[in-house]
Write a structure and sequence with these properties.
Structural class: mainly alpha
Oligomer: single chain
Shape: elongated
Number of strands: 0
Amino acid sequence: MQKKGRPLTLILLVALIFSLALGAVQGYSAGLPIRLYEQDVPLVTIGTYLAVISLIRTAINPFLIFIGFYLVGRKIDLKANLGLSILSLIAGASIGGFVGYAVTTLIMNPLVELLVGAAGYSTGFYQIFFVAFTALAIAHLRKKG
């Protein structure tokens, strides 16, 4: 018999790690064009950098997030811990994403851009939540069936 808090801590930690990475990538990509343009980097090069960042973001969300939460979902009883699993997922995704985005943006941009851009990060949070919860649910169903 597994301890009740351990799977929920695992969900929280995995959500924190992935959303921290996504928040940092989003914060970095928000400030990169301005920094590069100020240094007279050609627009084609700026576009190439943004395309690479977009590929990294796509590799993390949805692919790595799905795989990570699928593996976590195989170790937990989602039906018994549904409410707490959702709360752990929401807390990890929102805290990690905001911290990753805020730290990266504060390093690269002024505070005004942080406040404006943080409002746009909520879309990323919903994507993380739905991909992660879908993976947990599929892993639970496959484990039961």
